[in-house]
Design brief:
InterPro entries: NagB/RpiA_transferase-like (IPR037171), Ribose-5P_isomerase (IPR050262), Ribose5P_isomerase_typA_subgr (IPR020672), Ribose5P_isomerase_type_A (IPR004788). Its EC number is 5.3.1.6. The protein is an alpha/beta fold. Helices cover 28% and strands 24% of the residues. The protein has two domains: 147 residues, Rossmann fold (3-Layer(aba) Sandwich); 73 residues, 2-Layer Sandwich (Alpha-Beta Plaits), CATH 3.30.70.260. The chain contains six helices and 13 strands. A six-stranded mixed beta sheet has the order 2-1-3-6-12-13. A hairpin with a 2-residue loop joins strand 12 and strand 13. The C terminus is likely disordered. The structure holds ribulose-5-phosphate (5RP). The site of ribulose-5-phosphate has 18 residues, from helix 2 and helix 4. Ribulose-5-phosphate binds next to helix 2 and helix 4.
């Protein structure tokens, strides 16, 4: 089985947590795309749900698969967000933003009663930080903001290589909200809470990819099958997945 199969297995398992009438947050990325596709199939069978997409890409995908859409304006409170992640630690703190959708992803997750993160098991880490931390910044002053983040990282004893994310044509990647992304190679992060607070204090930083205490369940899959992981109990890692209704 391939990594893609594991992503799909995790996405399929997340469907068990979707109930009729739910207002859903629809994540972004290749794992979330599996979930949106599978959800579309359930909608075609009669499941009554609606979703708020976290990116234009996910909006297009959801439309293509017939998932009814709503907005945070019309539906400011959601029942459940299902999204992927770039890294997941034991407390289910996450690094997200590899797909440049972290701002809308965080807004949508925060507006949800529950966030379930789905991934292939390679995303699990003991400590966050091997994956460069995506930070969404306002284009005005992006070089000053980049340098301020490098200074902060040095002060916190972290790696301080912060680069503007560029597309294949070398132009800066622009997010759905018109910002740019900085990728911060910080090394392993001992205190993500402090880093989060300090990053949010830098003018020009719109949001960063540390998702702390937002996910209440992770569903990860590998060649050994699908596992659910809850943040509180390390033992839960070995529990079999909840049965589908
Ligand atoms: O945060 C994200 C997008 O901003 C994605 O959820 C994250 O990058 C994981 O993507 P994939 O499922 O393709 O590995």
């Amino acid at each position: 089985m391939s990594t893609e199969d594991f992503k799909r297995a995790a996405a399929e398992a997340a469907l068990a947590y979707v109930e009729p009438g739910m207002k859903l947050g629809l994540g972004t990325g290749s794992t979330a795309a599996h979930f949106i596709e599978l959800l579309g199939a359930k909608v075609a069978e009669g499941l009554d749900v609606s979703g708020v997409p976290t990116s234009e890409a996910s909006r297009e995908l959801a439309e293509r698969h017939g998932v009814p859409l709503t907005t945070l304006k019309d539906t400011p409170e959601l029942d459940l967000t299902v999204d992927g992640a770039d890294e997941i630690d034991g407390r289910l703190n996450l690094i997200k933003g590899g797909g440049a959708a972290l701002l809308r992803e965080k807004i949508v997750a925060f507006a949800s009663k529950r966030m379930i993160v789905i991934a292939d098991a390679s995303k699990r880490v003991e400590r966050l930080g091997a994956f460069p931390l995506p930070i969404e910044v306002v284009p005005f002053g992006k070089e000053s903001t980049r340098r301020a983040i490098e200074r902060l990282a040095r002060d916190l004893g972290l790696g301080s290589d912060v680069a503007i994310r560029r597309a294949e044509d070398e132009c800066p990647v622009v997010t759905d909200s018109g910002h740019v992304i900085l990728d911060a190679r910080l090394g392993l992060i001992d205190d993500p809470e402090r880093l989060s607070v300090e990053l949010n204090r830098i003018p020009g930083v719109v949001e960063h990819g540390l998702f702390l205490r937002l996910a209440s369940l992770a569903i990860v899959a590998d060649q050994n099958g699908v596992k659910t992981i809850e943040p509180a109990s390390a033992q839960a890692e070995q529990q079999p997945m909840r049965k589908t209704a």
